[in-house]
Amino acid sequence: MKKKSGRTLSTTQMILLSFLLAIIAGSILLALPVSAADGKAVPYIDALFTATTSICVTGLVTVPTVSAWSVFGQIVILILIQIGGLGVITVLSGILISLHRRIGIGNRILLQDAFNLNSLSGIVKFLKQVLAGTVIVEGAGAILYMFVFVPDYGPRGIWISIFNSVSAFCNAGMDILSEDSLCGYAHNPLINLVTCLLIVLGGIGYIVWLDMGRVLKNWKRQGIGCLKGLTLHSKIAISTTVFLIVSGAAAFLFLECENPLTMGGSSWPDKIQMALFQSVTTRTAGFATVPQQNLTNTSAIVALLLMFIGGSPVGTAGGVKTVTVAVLLVFAFAAIQNREDASLFHRTVSRQAVSKAVAVVSMSFLIQFLSTVLLSFVSDADVIDIVYETVSATATVGLSRNLTPTLNLWGKIILIVTMYLGRVGPISLVIAFHTKKVKNNIIKNPEAEISVG
Questions:
Q1: Which of 200, 184, 188, 85 is nearest to 144 (CA)?
Q2: For the chain, which residues make up each domain, given as ranges?
Q3: Is 158 exposed, middle or buried (0-12, 13-18, 19+ CB in 10 A)?
Q4: Is the whole-model pTM more than 0.90?
């Protein structure tokens, strides 16, 4: 019998291809004259850049979102942000569910890979809960925003509220308020609080959502003790997120409290909320209440570290993820103490998780390094500005020191590729192109001692 010569795409390849097709489709729509605010089509490279930053929920822009695009163009961008935040496969599956169509085994496997889950069990129920939760959170955020934006902008404030809510929850960081992001609302407690909550809820990960919902059902019976029932993943994600937000806010407050270009002229309550917002937004959100180019170099380095780490797995955030960094740190300390196993919350971390964490961090760092070198070659900007932009692109953050709008064609192309690689994940890219199956060999090469460190 002859074997079939045709090849089918793997689930990873299909996910990567879906993002690429969504970017191309979005760029074509944004390149139409109807998408531009002045009725004249923007250059295709800017349309492609905007489509990429929207699908990759990054937020870096070459043209101002508020003034360059018409309402139609902004609607296209918002749809791309929502698709990018949830994932193309998730949105398509949600449409099938709304049409009362059955989700086949093939689509279930795609969803499993898209959400990075370990089992197919309950995948459709999980999808429904994710979609319902997204609608509820984004809707609540939009309503809260309206208390400020409608009095300030009239009926247009409704559209601004919806756009901002979706963008914040998806950790995109794009807005249609002004060209300086949320700097005009740096002292507004409601805008700061709502935006921070949306960012954290989107970035904490859907797995944590459902796990929290499960244990909180026992709140009346067990009280605070019910939180002990959280999975190891949730405990790591929540504790690491809280630690990074608090420590980051403390660092920014200390480093910027006397800087006249950022927080220096503000009251202490305003300084605290500005520092907290800066800490939260560096977790791949991209909104700004202080100009990033005015940060001290030390604060910029702290921001780079927070951006590199990013949010938590299976959410809308980017970066190498909180759980990844936590696993690497405990494994490193275990190695220093000559312990074979690393543990967190009295649970042993698997070697497979450690290996994957090492791979994710290594590949992410490699992409950022190459992107920095290439961008330095085609740009004359300061190194700190270039690194800020490339880390922001790789971690899909969107915070900028105003370098992106000044880039030439090659610079824009470099960041487009960097944003795409950062969104789909470097490991996914390697898996997608590594088609050769590796078999477990009984015969292994002999081991040899080497010196490390």
A1: 188
A2: 11-429
A3: middle
A4: no
Dist. CA 144–CA 401, nearest whole Å: 29
- What dihedral do alpha carbons 9, 12, 15, 21 form, nearest 10°? -50
> Which residues, at least 6 apart from 35, have a Cβ–Cβ distance to it below 8 Å?
29, 41, 42, 47, 69, 70, 72, 73, 76
The pLDDT, as a whole number, for residue 231 is: 85
pLDDT tens for residues 296-329? 999 999 999 999 999 888 778 888 899 999 999 9
End-to-end CA distance of the chain: 55
- Which of 307, 270, 272 has its CA nearest to residue 286? 307
Amino acid 281 reads T
Q: Would you call 425 helix, strand, or coil by DSSP?
A: coil
The residue with tokens 């756009």 is: 163
What does each C-alpha distance from 55 to 76, 78, 147, 162 come to in angstroms? 11, 9, 29, 17
Opening angle at CA 367, ends 365 and 371, nearest 5: 115
What tokens does 405 get?
């709008």
Q: What are phi and psi of 95, to 5 degrees?
A: -65, -40
